[in-house]
Specification:
Dna Topoisomerase Vi A Subunit, Chain: A, domain 2; 6 helices; 4 strands; 9% strand
């Protein structure tokens, strides 16, 4: 089961990398989320929602300048409320907000993590479950 979950999460991370390379903005909550995603090889472009001097409507307007936007807020109640509000605001501005990656990651990690910044450690834990012994001794 851990191997399948690891493969599924890796697929979603690779999709984020690809979309970032295409220049699709990724809406995240804050600096620690950005650091975690960069650790996983996702380069953005990132738009941070929390700690920004802009209001949510201004952030939505900035994000909507791209035709497609990935919303990747945390998996807790606050993150879900932010995702819903951003989705509505961005869609009303004529852009295409995408929640699919957030939903799939949340579904795979729901019992174990509640935020984006925990993804790297969760992935490492899954890797250890799949292969608990170092392979360099073989």
């Amino acid at each position: 089961m851990s191997l399948i979950k690891l493969q599924q999460i890796t697929h979603e991370i690779n999709e984020l990398k690809y979309q970032g390379e295409l220049g699709v903005p990724i809406l995240i909550e804050g600096r620690k989320d950005e650091e975690a995603l960069r650790e996983l090889g996702v380069e953005g472009p990132f738009i941070k929602v929390s700690g920004s001097m802009m209001g949510l409507s201004e952030i939505a307007l900035r994000a909507a300048s791209a035709s497609r936007v990935i919303i990747l807020t945390d998996f807790d109640r606050k993150g879900s409320e932010l995702a819903k509000r951003l989705y509505t605001d961005i869609q009303s501005l004529g852009a295409n907000p995408d929640l699919r990656i957030r939903r799939r990651l949340m579904g795979m990690t729901r019992k174990y993590i509640k935020d984006i910044q925990s993804l790297p450690s969760y992935i490492e834990r899954l890797k250890l479950e799949v292969c608990p012994y170092p392979l360099d001794n073989i």
